[in-house]
Amino acid sequence: MRSFHVATGQRNQMIEITDEVRRCVAESGVEDGIVTVFAAHTTAAITINENADPDVVRDLNVHLSRLSPEKGDYRHAEGNSDSHLKSTLVGASETVLLNRGRLILGTWQGIYFCEFDGPRQRTIHVKVIGQ
Amino acid sequence: MRSFHVATGQRNQMIEITDEVRRCVAESGVEDGIVTVFAAHTTAAITINENADPDVVRDLNVHLSRLSPEKGDYRHAEGNSDSHLKSTLVGASETVLLNRGRLILGTWQGIYFCEFDGPRQRTIHVKVIGQ
Amino acid sequence: MRSFHVATGQRNQMIEITDEVRRCVAESGVEDGIVTVFAAHTTAAITINENADPDVVRDLNVHLSRLSPEKGDYRHAEGNSDSHLKSTLVGASETVLLNRGRLILGTWQGIYFCEFDGPRQRTIHVKVIGQ
User: Model ipTM?
Assistant: First the structure.
């Protein structure tokens, strides 16, 4: 298992981690299999989406906050129930295919760490499973 | 493959299954790899979220039902289209990393079975894949 | 790794691909393990839901579009920010268990490719990992 950290700077922020995941895959020496990327936090998530136009990430964050607003009928006293809901909607992990040493991603796909309750120091774990 | 059952008592209910998953992992004898937890139902799901304050789970259920209300412009005659939508939003499975015999979960992370159309008897399957 | 294509005919459309995934599994020769099905696109997704009553899929599409409407406060100039959001909400992949040569799916569960910005030609990748 390999792990790395990201330091987030805003309450809601998507940070591309494709290069970090590729580095973990290269270090593993595995050429064919799958790669699971896991966020070890209940107010964060991993997703795959477009890494070309930064407005896509802006729109994702604005509209996730429309679906899960910061203020609402919440009982959890820490004031971050919206962050927990986003985490469950987006999901704690993504699994990506590995073929002949390359991550199989579409032309515009990047792997993102999603911060929903920052700024914080966060940990991401990566496991590469050979075929 | 290992399987176990949960009996749910409400229409919407999240039941922590981390201990059951740990038992499946221990029985498998695998020390390093990944663990996929799968809900074999179209009106249920698996998620990972906080297992410390029960208000988090309460808030998740209330706000999932705000996003996917029981009544609406639905055609499916069984009256559980909201449950099917929640299942697709949350997802039928979670994959967790396994390192040196331990599930790699963050401090507050627990694995939950999500019932969206209970009460029912439900089946969860677990597969442990070695590295 | 195995890949196949689907041609979608509408902007929003769910197409069942369970048979195609089963064919990939049979070709792999693996009897026990997991199968990851991956959509190589940022405006599409993979989900598991009911394949008996087609009204379930109709209701899913209508209500995903209610949560992520085509028009809104979007900056991304391509006019498909709603499609990107749906992709992140539903997720780019599903992992299914494989036991004694059979995909482990519940009675009503089918695997679906979700088109959110069609019509288009799309690519789906499948990786089978033995236990």
Answer: 0.97
